[in-house]
Amino acid sequence: MAGYTHSKDDHLKRLRRIEGQVRGLERMVDEDKYCIDVLTQVSAANRALQAFALELLEEHLAHCVADAVAKGGAEAEAKVKEASDAIARLVRS
Predict the structure, then answer these.
(1) What is the CA radius of gyration of the chain?
(2) Are 80 and 60 in contact (CB under 8 A)?
(3) Helix or strand or coil: residue 31?
(4) By the 8 A CB rule, do 69 and 79 touch?
(5) How far apart are CA 3 and CA 60, in angstroms?
(6) What gap in Å lies between CA 83 and CA 76, rounded to an integer?
(7) What are phi and psi of 2, to 5 degrees?
(8) Residue 78 to residues 4, 30, 72: CA-CA distances in angstroms?
(9) pLDDT tens-digit profile of 16-63?
(10) Mean pLDDT of the 53-82 span
(11) pLDDT the model gives residue 2
(12) pTM value?
């Protein structure tokens, strides 16, 4: 079971809102809106995706990584490395 399963509906709602933001960006470009206004909305969509990613990461650490660490062994090391790599990707983006 995924770490986010208990909040899956909330995540899906959030992703649909983000999808709406991106569709709104498409509309803005189609309607030749002012560049800065479009960039402002791009920034908002990026922040929304980052917030989603951080929440998902938190759930992954609390469930998937914590469960693996409790079991110990190679799986624990692999999950911690996987989480570290995911954090590094988020920081670079």
Answers:
(1) 17
(2) no
(3) coil
(4) yes
(5) 5
(6) 11
(7) -70, 150
(8) 19, 46, 10
(9) 999 999 999 999 999 999 999 999 999 999 999 999 999 999 999 999
(10) 94
(11) 75
(12) 0.83
Q: What are phi and psi of 59, to 5 degrees?
A: -65, -40
Q: Which amino acid is at 62?
A: A
Asked if residue 45 lies in contact with residue 21, where contact means CB atoms within 8 angstroms, the answer is yes
Residue ranges in 31-65 assigned as alpha helix (H): 35-60
3-class secondary structure, 3: coil
Lookup: tokens for 91: 């920081």
**SS3 at position 50:** helix
Domains and CATH numbers, the chain: 7-92 (1.20.58.1000)
Average pLDDT over residues 3-24: 93
SS3 content of the chain, % helix, strand, coil (to 5): 90, 0, 10
38: Cβ contacts below 8 Å, ≥ 6 apart: 25, 28, 29
Length of the chain: 93
